[in-house]
């Protein structure tokens, strides 16, 4: 797992698997300081390290946030079993509508790759957050913006005082858009993210580490072009530069099949 200190109040961890990101963010000072862990790394040893990373960096843990309900972003509870988990109302609704889905998919993944974990995933108490809305962090406020298209649920987390945008599974420089909830919804999300990206200095996609504004703007334009082509005629779509390997072609074929 890579850990990148991008600001004295922001550490981004990148899982060895799928380059899934986990963002630690701190706000406020002294006794009033608070810290959130947004999304999670995937592998057991990475999750086991998480409390020590926070402690060594002097980041308090006030709660967990998850950008959406896909299982690989929900594993913070394995590291912090008692922490509150805040999610968008849409994500809380999806978790209610698909009870046990995240746990089942995690179990299938672990069985497939012979991964063993010290305890099963228990999502326990979920705190639905109003999105669009705000979430206090120390003396500052995180802005929560709705996302959708990759999945039906989700939120992007914007920390304006840090120029930090944690956007969930959008704007990945390594992964093409994977559309399970509509090309139109995905394009609407890109339109909502665009002004945030323009104001951001650091963007953390769900997969692929930290990118700068220029890279995020390039990915956004490429993703928009890909999705518009996909919506018109999914047969002859060109994949974005640098995202054309076998796995990306497989993801593209899945998009085409879902839209058929
Ligand atoms: Zn993901």
Question: What helical percentage do the residues reach?
Answer: 25-40%
Instruction: Give the tally of β-strands.
Output: 12
CATH class: Alpha Beta
- Beta fraction of the residues? 15-25%
- Looking at the overall shape, the CATH architecture is 4-Layer Sandwich
Can you characterise this structure?
The chain has 260 residues and is an alpha/beta fold. Helices cover 35% and strands 23% of the residues. It has one domain: 4-Layer Sandwich (Metallo-beta-lactamase, Chain A). The strands form 2 sheets. It has a 7-stranded mixed beta sheet with strand order 1-2-3-4-5-6-7. A 5-stranded mixed beta sheet has the order 8-9-10-11-12. The radius of gyration is 18 Å and the shape is globular. 43% of the residues are buried. The model has no long low-confidence stretch (mean pLDDT 95). Zinc ion binds next to loops.
List keywords for this structure.
seven-stranded mixed beta sheet, Metallo-beta-lactamase, Chain A, globular, alpha/beta, five-stranded mixed beta sheet, binds zinc ion, 260 residues
Fold topology:
Elements: E1 2-7, E2 10-14, E3 21-27, E4 34-38, H1 44-57, E5 63-65, H2 76-79, E6 85-88, H3 89-97, H4 101-112, E7 126-129, E8 133-137, E9 140-146, E10 155-159, E11 164-168, H5 183-199, E12 202-205, H6 213-232, H7 246-259
Parallel strand pairs: 4-5, 5-6, 6-7, 11-12
Antiparallel strand pairs: 1-2, 2-3, 3-4, 8-9, 9-10, 10-11
Helix pairs in contact: 5-6
Short synopsis of the structure:
The protein has about 260 residues and is an alpha/beta fold. It is about 35% helix and about 25% strand. A hairpin with a 2-residue loop joins strand 1 (about 1-5) and strand 2.
